[in-house]
From TrEMBL, chain A:
SMART domains assigned to the protein according to its UniProt record, in alphabetical order: AAA
Domain ABC transporter: 18-234
Positions in coiled-coil regions: none
The protein's name: Sulfonate transport system ATP-binding protein
UniProt KW Cytoplasm keyword: no
Origin superkingdom: Bacteria
Classification via InterPro entries: AAA+_ATPase, ABC_transporter-like_ATP-bd, ABC_transporter-like_CS, ABC_transporter_ATP-bind, P-loop_NTPase
Family: Belongs to the ABC transporter superfamily.
Gene Ontology molecular-function annotations: ATP binding; ATP hydrolysis activity
Keyword list, A-Z: ATP-binding, Cell membrane, Hydrolase, Membrane, Nucleotide-binding, Translocase, Transport
Record EC number: 3.6.3.-
TrEMBL record, chain B:
Record-annotated ABC transmembrane type-1 domain positions: 67-247
Membrane topology annotation: Multi-pass membrane protein
Any single Gene Ontology cellular-component annotation: plasma membrane
Name under which the protein is recorded: Sulfonate transport system permease protein
Membrane-spanning segments: 20-39, 75-95, 107-127, 133-155, 176-204, 224-250
Length: 244, 262
């Protein structure tokens, strides 16, 4: 990655994490999330796993402030500067790529920052393309640029790489790690992919039956090797926690 | 081609003026019917007589004057109709109080035939230009309102959520999400409106007008000049086609982001 870009240079001390006490969500009597507590330290990368339908998206939407009907018994703290990446790239099809990235940025140099952010995700030269003309992976990278250009203190990502092929996934993982190292946001990454979780996260949690049934720090160095026994062990404990 | 792939994916190569095929065929049928005597010239004169009559009307300057008066009328009416249509659809689409106030009356007006309103319009506004433009405006505003407000209402929830997460102000949300998202619906409405602008024009020009195409045709009817009536009809048809063509072109340019069947 180009190191001289303004965004990459903006290394900041991490600040702003998540603190939620007693989060519950019921859909017409069915309890999906049952009085859950969750703390994410500033700059910490947490992966959230769980079966399909276990309430991962529900949890993330609650933290993103997208769910007005969620019950919070003991208070919720999330930073103002929170970015969300959805499972679909969710680009406005009628705005060009650059506009999609810079929309809502209230800064004089917003345009330059957006151009730089597109450079960071390897999309220099595609500024004036329509989102519909990009590949799925490219669209997802635009979404990543849009999230990071806001210099978030918290990044909420709902299976952002779920629809990508294995190769694109690998390069996106690398990109996400680099960008997180540069910008140090706290991250909550929802994922189905156990390897992805162990590869990227500082901590993994598993949601099951409306509660967090497993919460474990990843005791691995920053550069991770899938063959490392600790990697294999953590992976196995996650799969056990998921009941696989 | 394999049996399972019957839906064509590649956009067909455009053939220039292909759209004119149908109208040209119609013209051929008309010509042949006239030449063989199957069509009585008192019912409808042959195309060449209509053409020579048109030339004569152009040479005398009659057609241009009529055309100018009519185009001015319908375009003023349509322009105002577009403004009101957009205005009402924003009021109704963005705010439920606005919808409660605006939508009902417009639905009632939509169900009312213009012909039935003309006497009242004349009683209120007189026989002049004001009445004609008002009626065109009120009529053309309806398709725009219906289609644009429906398009606003169906802007996807997921884009509303996105707007929330990137902290757009209400105005930015309207400007960057709602309006461009509703533009396809607006164009559908606009094309319907443009057609109805010409339809209403014909009707209002029949009543006590001293210029315009409707007047020209009306006079011809009184004098039994079928060929002038035919010229009028052809001009109306051309106007309709041209307007639609221009709007299609505009739509294609403005909505170039869309990936659609055609
Ligand atoms: N708006 C809603 N109305 C009713 N039920 C809902 C609603 N949203 C979610 N649910 C239910 O809540 C449960 C959890 O949904 P959620 O989308 O959070 O699952 P998830 O863990 O993200 O699953 P996946 O991995 O498949 O994305 C599901 O059973 C779903 O049917
Ligand atoms: Mg989900």
């Amino acid at each position: 990655m180009a190191q001289d870009l303004p965004l990459t240079n903006a290394k900041r001390a991490p600040k702003g994490g998540v603190e939620v006490r007693g989060l519950s969500r019921r859909f017409s009597g069915r309890t999906i999330i049952d009085n859950v507590d969750l703390t994410i330290a500033p700059g910490e990368f947490v992966a959230l796993l769980g079966h399909s339908g276990s309430g991962k998206s529900t949890m993330l939407r609650a933290l993103a402030g997208l769910d007005p009907d969620v019950e919070i018994a003991g208070g919720l703290t999330v930073p103002d500067a929170t970015s969300v990446i959805f499972q679909d790239a969710r680009l406005l099809p009628w705005q060009r790529v650059l506009t999609n990235v810079r929309l809502g940025l209230r800064r004089q140099d917003g345009g330059n920052l957006a151009v730089a952010a597109l450079g960071e995700v390897g999309l220099t030269g595609r500024e004036t393309a329509w989102p519909g003309d990009l590949s799925g992976g490219e669209q997802q990278r635009v979404a990543l640029a849009r999230a990071l250009v806001r210099e978030p203190e918290l990044l909420l990502a709902d299976e952002p790489f779920g629809a990508l092929d294995a190769l694109t996934k690998i390069s996106m993982h690398k990109l996400l790690r680099e960008l997180c190292a540069a910008h140090s946001p706290a991250v909550l990454l929802v994922t189905h992919d156990v390897d992805e979780a162990v590869l990227l996260a500082d901590r993994t949690i598993v949601l099951h039956g409306g509660r967090i049934v497993l919460d474990e720090t990843v005791k691995l160095p920053n550069i991770r090797d899938r063959a490392d026994p600790e990697f294999v062990g953590h992976r196995k404990r996650l799969l056990d926690g998921l009941g696989v | 081609m394999s049996a399972w792939g019957t839906v064509r994916i590649r956009a067909e190569k455009p053939i220039p003026f292909l759209r004119l095929l149908g109208p040209v065929l119609l013209l051929v049928v008309w010509g042949v019917a006239s030449a063989t005597g199957a069509l009585d010239p008192r019912t409808l004169p042959p195309p060449w007589q209509v053409v020579s009559r048109a030339w004569q009307l152009i040479a005398d300057g009659v057609l241009q004057r009529a055309l100018l008066a009519s185009v001015q009328r319908s375009m003023t009416g349509l322009g105002l109709g577009v403004l009101f249509g957009i205005g009402f659809s924003l009021i109704s689409g963005l705010n439920r109080w606005g919808e409660a106030i605006v939508d009902g009356p417009l639905q009632i007006w939509r169900a009312t035939p213009v012909l039935a309103v003309i006497p009242l319009a004349i009683y209120w506004l007189g026989l002049g230009e004001q009445m004609k433009i008002t009626l065109i405006c009120l009529t053309t505003m309806i398709p725009i309102y219906i289609n644009t407000s429906a398009a606003i209402a169906s802007v996807e929830k997921r884009f509303v959520e996105l707007a929330h997460t990137i902290r757009l102000t209400h105005w930015e949300f309207v400007r960057y999400v709602v309006i461009p998202g509703a533009l396809p619906g607006f164009f559908t409405g606009l094309r319907l409106s443009a057609v109805s602008a010409w339809l209403v024009l014909v009707v209002v020009e029949q009543s006590n007008t001293i210029n315009g195409l409707g007047y020209m045709v009306g006079e011809a009817r009184v004098n039994g000049q079928v060929d002038i009536i035919a010229v009028g009809l052809v001009v109306y048809a051309l106007l309709g086609l041209t307007t639609d063509g221009v709007l299609r072109l505009l739509e294609k340019r403005v909505l170039s982001w869309r990936k659609t069947f055609r």
